[in-house]
Amino acid sequence: MVTETPALVATPEERVLDAAVACVARWGLAKTTLDDIAREAGLSRASVYRRFPGGKAALLQEAGQRELRRALAELIEALETAETLEQVVTDGIVAAAAALHDHPAVRQLIEHEADVVRPLLAFDRITPGLLLAAELCGPTLHRFVPPRAAAELVEQCSRLVLSLTFVPGSVDLGDHDAVGRYVRAYVLPGVERLAAGPTTDPSTDPTTADHPGGTP
Amino acid sequence: MSAPTVRDRVLDAVVDAVERSGLRQLAMEEVATLSGISRATLYRHFPGGREQLVSEAVTREVARFWGQLADAVRDLPTIEDRLVAGIIDARRRIDDNDLLQRLLASEPDDFLPRLFESDSLVHEVLRGYLRDLLERERLRPGVDLEEAADYVTRMLLSHVATAGRWDLADERDVRRLVRRQFLAGIVEGTDPPRV
Predict the structure, then answer these.
(1) What confidence tens digit (pLDDT) does each residue in B10-25 have?
(2) Which residue of A20, A52, A146, B48 has the fewest C-beta atoms within 10 A of its own C-beta?
(3) Contact B158, B108 (CB under 8 A)
């Protein structure tokens, strides 16, 4: 693993991206301007443009990608100790939903700009985010399932987190037991026969005892 | 076929006008001319003016999209087959829809919020449709029909919106997706064979 030396002083690019996130958290996506971001970062508008020639849209997209990478890195760390596939998937969904919910900029978007955000989730705009999630989190699941199934599983869970966050419904993503039940009902059956070991925690799954198909 | 109602003629005219000159340029005058009715009649039917015209035209096109999709898969026997064919067909219809693609490319900020106005309605209608299909299948023990229909609705909408890692033009890939991720926990016999 490559260890990064923590930067003592943020680069101007990082300051701009931090400023963009702070502005969106405060004012939302639609109202945030490049001037706001420049002021927040303590830079001139011209120097922001020089670093991000694509303007507001490109800058916000890059800020979003960076936030996603950071959140996924934290998520992976939290999942390393999980002992079963059920645990890693359930913990992952709960933690990802919490990270989305607690992120100040995302929170602002969910609460005040649902009409701006929903379209961002359509027409393949989030495919890069889904692929990044699978690329970074997939290996966490290699202990339990083959690589291809792991990547597919991460994508499936990412979709469920987004869907249930933006269109709340059948399961409360903050309720660990409820998410565990949902995962056992809809997610694990598609992979359990591919799994390298027991997928579920016997103490939470009453069907394990009479489920001969579980472990080869 | 019965004669189109004033409403249909007007909404057809809205689509024609947007095809010609885009959403932002849309004017009541042009819609009146294209549909062959007076401005006064137009306002009587659509008192909300331009806003209402656009909103209703988009909603009607969305309803048509899903209606045509349901028709296209109507004769397929199982929910699995319908989902597989439906996903492939939906993605193709979206890619092939020139007007949709043009609006997405040139006027996304005006157009997209309109498109998602009917989102919760779509979710609700699909959930009912899928619930009826699931009811005809042999379900795994203990399946909650309502929740299962909601789950499949979410997965379907997610994949119609975003392909992610799947090749949604490839039947084998889509069938693998549907069996493994949509139905394995719900319909008997759809979970993958043991390796």
Answers:
(1) 999 999 999 998 998 8
(2) B48
(3) no
Does the pLDDT at position B194 exceed 70?
Answer: no
* Interface predicted TM-score (ipTM) of this complex, two decimals: 0.91
Contact A93, A158 (CB under 8 A): no
The rounded distance, in Å, linking the Cα atoms of A34 and A16 is 10
Interface probe with B: pick from A121, A126, A137, A159, most Cβ of B within 10 Å:
A159
How many CA atoms are closer than 13 Å to the CA of B109, on its beta-carbon side?
Answer: 4
User: What is the rounded (10 degree) CA torsion for A177, A180, A184, A185?
Assistant: 60
CA distance to A111, B69, B140, per residue, from A26 (Å): 12, 42, 48
Question: What is the C-alpha to C-alpha distance for residues B70 and A18, in angstroms, rounded to an integer?
Answer: 46
Q: A142: distance to nearest CA of chain B, Å?
A: 16
Q: How far apart are CA A159 and CA A191, in angstroms?
A: 17
Give the percent of chain A with pLDDT over 70.
86
Q: List Cα–Cα distances, B141 to A185, B144, B186, in angstroms.
A: 11, 9, 8
CB contact under 8 A, B157 and A164: no
Ranges of H-type helices in B36-170: 39-45, 49-72, 79-96, 98-106, 108-115, 119-135, 145-161
Q: Spell out the residues 6+ positions from residue B182 whose beta carbon is closer than 8 angstroms to its own.
A: B83, B152, B155, B156
Residues of chain B with Cβ-Cβ distance to A126 below 8 Å are: 162
Spatial CB neighbours of B64, under 8 Å, sequence gap ≥ 6: none
Chain A: nearest CA to B54, how far in angstroms? 16
Length of chain A: 216
Burial B166-178 (b: 16+ CB within 10 A, else e): bebeeeebbbbbb
Q: CA-to-CA distance for B131 and B117, rounded, in angstroms? A: 23
Q: In chain B, what is the greatest distance between 2 CA atoms, to the nearest angstrom?
A: 70
Do residue A162 and residue B108 have CB atoms under 8 angstroms apart?
no
A34 pLDDT higher than 70: yes
Residues A34-63, buried b or exposed e (16+ Cβ, 10 A)? bebbbebbebeeeebeebbeeebeebbbbb
